User: Fold this.
Amino acid sequence: MNWLKPSWQALLAIVLCVIAIALGAMSKPEAAALADPTASISYPYLGTKGLMLGLAIVAALISMIRIPSLVEAIVLFVGAHLVAWLLISGIAGFEGTALAPYFLLLTAAWLLGWRCVAVLSGLRPMASTARNALRLIIPAIFGAWILIIWEAVTRGAGIPFILLPPPSAIGARIAGSLPVLGADVRQTIFKAVIFGYVVGSGAGFITAILADRVPFLRRGLLPIGNMVSALPIIGVAPIMVMWFGFDWQSKAAVVIIMTFFPMLVNTVAGLAASGHMERDLMRTYASGYWPTLIKLRLPAAAPFIFNALKINSTLALIGAIVAEFFGTPVVGMGFRISTEVGRMNIDMVWAEIAVAALAGSVFYGVVALVERAVTFWHPSVRGG
Amino acid sequence: MDSFRDKLVPVTSILAGVVVLWYVFAVILNAPFQRDLDSRANETPGAVEFIGKTLAQPKPTLPAPHQVAVNFFENTFLRPITSSRSLVYNAWVTLSSTLLGFAFGTALGIIIAVGIVHVATLDRSLMPWIIASQTIPILAVAPMIIVVLAAIGVTGLIPKAMISTYLSFFPVTVGMVKGLRSPEIMHLDLMHTYNASPSQTFWKLRVPASVPFLFTSMKVAVAASLVGAIVGELPTGAVAGIGAKLLAGAYYSQSIDIWSALVAGSIVAALLVMVVGVAGRIVDRAMGGRPA
Amino acid sequence: MTGISPAVVAASKLGLTFQTNDGPVQALSNVDLTIGKGEFVSFIGPSGCGKTTLLRVIADLEKPTSGTISVNGMTAEQAREKRAYGYVFQAAALFPWRTIERNVALPLEIMGLSRAEQAERIKRTLDLVNLSGFEKKYPWQLSGGMQQRASIARALAFDADLLLMDEPFGALDEIVRDHLNEQLLQLWARTNKTICFVTHSIPEAVYLSTRIVVMSPRPGRVSDIIESTLPKERPLDIRETPEFLAIAARVRDGLRAGHSYDD
Ligand SMILES: Nc1ncnc2c1ncn2[C@@H]1O[C@H](COP(=O)(O)OP(=O)(O)OP(=O)(O)O)[C@@H](O)[C@H]1O
Ligand SMILES: [Mg+2]
Assistant:
């Protein structure tokens, strides 16, 4: 039997499909049609039910034959996603009528997807391009399945829209509200976040350099900065709104305060990071404070500084959005989230969150790319 | 403790400097409004009297430290703990959801980390998302969670605790994955020569090796958890809690109240981080950690 | 001695090639070796010649890519599962969160011995390496030499007949090293264990061993095997005797030959 290699995912998927076949109707209309064959009731999956079950079972069976892993992964990938696509597209017009076999089939497809990811995880290709591709594909499939299950469950079970809208509705809402979303991004990110980020990080950096020149300051600022980093600084938002008004300036002020301390603490720590041997070497060259700082200590501190820049990229977004909960002109991501929540337009809230997530990732990604370019010599970058 | 004495003087002098600056700014920032008041009342106070007045306004732009201190003292020690204006009461409301969320978040984080370390598929598929999600301003989700849960009848402690859970499980997951992977190859080989089972390797090597990482990430998590609880109190117009105090202060322009709520929040945060830090040190000592 | 007792370790045509990112690295090739019960075999050779790899193959920490290896008449894997050997790494590799006593107890816990038996073995092995009185200390409270002795105690606690040691004294100073060498010899004489011992030092190899396996690099292989004619009783000053120096000279020649072969 060595042409067989069973996997629990495929076996369980087949079992689930068999149970689904035994249970019969996929949806309430189908059950009604079965109960009363004379009535002409339209129901979902008229022609595709057998196809879906067959696909899932066949893909599961093929995956258990001893074939090359890549082929197995492709079969599973195609099978799982085709079933999911048929399942989701078929429920259109019949939302909320799904019965147990619908969810069993969904689970079976998900198991095949899981098996596919497991097979891909086991691949150890020699070529580095293939390795990099796998590093992207595997999490991408995982992410896709979160969306698939979300979509299929919300629509199949008919979860109320205000509780959790399906991703397709959120996508449609994003596409339909681009001008509003764009205006919000401009207000929150291009005004408050970027200004606050640059000023806050810059001020933290300069303070750290000053503190470095004065050991007394450094010894005092480091513990204070560490302490303050743990405090709920976000709470200054109402004060900033009182001081600087409703517009973006108050949000920028919150961002400045939030980004200042991480930069201060990290830069001070980074300036202490260069080795004694290297510093002594600079001493033997009779190099002064500033040349040593620029040629040795700042480069050595770069990983720390970039770490702060990365932390700050997230903090800045959070600060600006949450500060808007305390009052804004009628535009801005935080404003939109809080008002649309109040109006129960949950799909718009999700759209705004998706945009915020995207903005956050792009922001972080840009900082990470700059870091790679600047600290190419550092082991953590060279290593991979 | 040499290093402690090294820091004490600089820290106290910097803090003293902050207080002095605070007074200076309080006078400067509150002066315009005071001048306004005086001119309307047709008064021309002397400089000392004028400064005294700027530091005693009921709704100052920047309250003076002693005003905040007095407000904080009154609302903390002079009110019955059951009063809704008591800071102890409000801090407790926030603290309870912080702790609940923190406990759940830590447990969840540990479970996910164990899964990631032991199941290669999870490591390759879930871990990148966990890392990516760090870059997402998750606090933006807070109002929605509160309102949606309220719509299905879940209110009070649980929704806030969920936000705290959400915020605190990330650092714990990342820290624990690092920690469970921290044993050196040589230690793993050693367990291999003993023919130790995976569960023996887990309990005798990976778990003890991960403890320092756990406590470091728990410090971050508990601070994040508190922020989550505070932000969770904003959108509902919650009746109690530090976030509610902030919101009410903002609404009625009670700047002194805002500041004393902030002080309360900071004290809670500092205490939480300290408690986790001390617990970490005790565990470390019990596990034979070298004194610093 | 080798001929009579059954082989504890038998390798034939053993080869191991690592697949690395920069192509294959042949760490061992065509190693034939038989080690009998009660022998003290040293492995010596230049850095990178595969001494550690060979020891790791015996310990089933690495799988050979060609040839066969048997330990106590079983495959290396079966032997490991039977806990047939104790392994001493180059560094002490003690768990920092366990006291010396608990460190020695680690393999015993894994074997599932009773508390009483654990206590008995801990006491016995710590006595053996002269560490009585340090049971409750943590590793960082001990000197490097004491830590290494604790790790030897941990390997001995197993009570396996085979002891695999990879440069156990490499990081220690000369004086401590002499002392530990002497103690190791006494221990070997008392317990009649089989010991495989990797070292960089010619005097150490000659002083300790009944046989010295000289290895040479690229690819790692056995280039010479030298039988020691020294008596089993070896005071430290045996190292000044002509007999000792003659064996040392032979080892040095073996090492040189391995090198010239390479260039
Ligand atoms: N895990 C590994 N992956 C790839 N190559 C390895 C690995 N382990 C060892 N090697 C290679 O195998 C060869 C032999 O290594 P080994 O560690 O056995 O040498 P050694 O004789 O113990 O050296 P040293 O005296 O420095 O400890 C070396 O060329 C080394 O680079
Ligand atoms: Mg070696």
